[in-house]
Each structure stands twice: as C-alpha cells, then as structure tokens.
Amino acid sequence: MALIMQYISNLNRYMDTHGDPRTKDWPMMSSPFPTLIVCVFYAYFVKVIGPRLMENRKPFRLQNTLVIYNAIQVVLSLWIFYEIAMSGWLTGHYSFRCQPVEYNNNPRTIRMVHACWWYYFSKFTEFIDTIFFILRKKQSQVTMLHVIHHGCMPLSVWFGVKFTPGGHSTFFGFLNTFVHIIMYTYYMLSAMGPQYHKYLWWKKYLTTLQMVQFILIMVHAFQLLFIECNYPRPFVWWIGMHAVMFFFLFNEFYKQAYKGRQTKYENLLMFILQRHEKNDKVKVNGNLSSANGYVGPKWQTVDRTETNLTNGHAGNFKLNGLSNGVTLGSALKNGKDIANGHGDIMQRKVQQQI
C-alpha cells in the first residue's frame, strides 16, 4: 500500500512539473485519479448498481426532465462551441494545418484555456444521459458503444487540459460540440412527445455526421505525422487513435441499427401480410419505427378492414397514398413501396401476398 501511495505521489509530482501551470489549481486538475475514479464508478453504476436498484421498481416517466436536460445540453454545447471558435478556430489566429499550444496569458489564449476546461466539465454532464436510461429501465440502450464513449472521454480530455489546453487538439472539441448541438436538439425534440417524431426523419444522418466528425479529426490529427509542427507528437497519436476507435464503434452501431433493421421490418411486414391474407387480426407489441426516426403507435391492430399503419410509414417502408382508414392490402397494392433500393422486390412480394 505504501508503495502504491509513493507511486501516486511521484506521478502527481511529475504532472505538476510538466503540466500547464495555468490549470494546475483548477477543479479536478491536480491529479488524474479523481477523474479516473469517477469514470470507473460511472461504468460500474450503469452496468451493475443501477440495473439492480431498478430491477423491482417501475420505470420513471421523465419527459419534462428529459426536455429540460437536453435543452441545457444544447445551450452548453453551443456556448462552448462559440468560445472555442472565437478564441481560436474562427478568428484567423489558428491554423488548420499546424497550431502549436500558446503558453501565454494573452486574454484570447486564456479564453481558449477556459473553454477547454468547460469542455472537460461537459463530459461529466453527459453521464446523466445514461442515468436517465437506467431510471427509465432502458437498459438495452446502455450499449458497449455508449458506455465506452461516455466513460473514457473525461479522462481523455483531462490530459489535454492538463498539458495542452489550446492549439491543435482543440479541433476535436470544436467539431464535437458542433455535433452535440445537433444531437441534443434531436434528443430534446424526441423527448417532447410523439407529435414531434415525424420531424425526426434524420436520425441516421446524425449518426453519419458523427462518423464524418471522427474522420475529419483523424485527418486533422495525423497530418502532423508528416509535417513539422511544434506540437507534442504523443498527443497527435492520443487524439487520432481516439477518433479511429470511435469511428469503428459508431460504424458498427450504424450497421446494426440501420442495415440490420431493414431485414427485421421486412420480416415483420411480411408476417402482417400473411396474417392479413388469412383474415386474422394481428397485434404488434412494441414500436414500429422506421430508420428515418418516425415512431408509430405502440399498439396496432391489422385485419382486412382496418389498419393503424398509416401516415405514410410501415416499419422501414414508405408507402405513398396511405391515409387513415385505408386497408393495409389496398394501400400496399395501390401505393409505391420504397425501401432503400428494394422497392421492386418488395412490390412483387406484396403483390404475391395480396
């Protein structure tokens, strides 16, 4: 135990010696261990403690809380984006090709240092996302991607604020806060109720934007491996490899969430059609959600004369000509079936079933 404490003391001494003196006495900046402890506790809580606490409890309904929380996140992200932009990237003082850290007390430079710390702070506020999932018993949304992404970011950003608060690496925060403005706007609209879901057709494009973000960060960081720039090489690898990791994690999520979903809804739609042919009623428990973000009614009954699969959507398939009260059979027979390039195939399948 004494040996461990000695090691921690030496590590803290090293970081104080080589860290940026401007942030030395700022909250949580004296040592990486408080941040590490919080991150480890976060992962343990959302994967173990939280689900156990909620196991025998009813899920909380947090609609208003979610709207307010996401609105605050939009405002916070917008403000940090503005601060990073106006103290560096959109002022003409920063070079997208090579930007060393400015270790001085110029007001513009100090403004960037403060923006870096607030970006670090915002990584903790994002933990609340997961806590809401736990309280609402949405454990399936606490994925590996979600926990890794939220759990490692505070510690990753800590090193940047401690050693390089400014310069080239702040491009990560500049892009990331811009994406978060859009992302939390989406979450806020989603939390406001089903009446807003028809405006959320762009969900998969948000995931695409997140992946584009990481590609830009990779290119921006790794370019310093091929040109001379007075910027610490270890931080080039640190930022670049984070972008690589998150790109592949988000890419895997995209394939599972949108590519795999088409087959699921295709099968569901064909099942409904088969039951429809037999004049059976079909009750579907759960949300029929298209990949474009539209969320249909939770309970839907389908027979020859009645359907709630209206408003132009059935699962992943957009059906032109649908209106309230129209039968599923006639809607499919008379409408065009557009399913991400599979329209002709699905049209033939539908005609065969009907």
From TrEMBL:
Pfam families named among the record's database cross-references: ELO
Record carries keyword Transmembrane: yes
Subcellular location: Membrane
One GO CC annotation: endoplasmic reticulum membrane
Enzyme class: transferase
Entry membrane topology: Multi-pass membrane protein
E.C. numbers: 2.3.1.199
GO molecular-function term, one example from the UniProt record: fatty acid elongase activity
Annotated catalysed reactions: a very-long-chain acyl-CoA + malonyl-CoA + H(+) = a very-long-chain 3-oxoacyl-CoA + CO2 + CoA
Keywords: Fatty acid biosynthesis, Fatty acid metabolism, Lipid biosynthesis, Lipid metabolism, Membrane, Transferase, Transmembrane, Transmembrane helix
Any GO BP: very long-chain fatty acid biosynthetic process
Transmembrane spans: 26-45, 66-85, 117-135, 142-161, 173-193, 205-223, 235-254
Family stated for the protein in its record: Belongs to the ELO family.
Protein name: Elongation of very long chain fatty acids protein
Provenance organism: Glossina fuscipes
Lineage: Eukaryota, Metazoa, Ecdysozoa, Arthropoda, Hexapoda
Name of the coding gene: LOC119634349
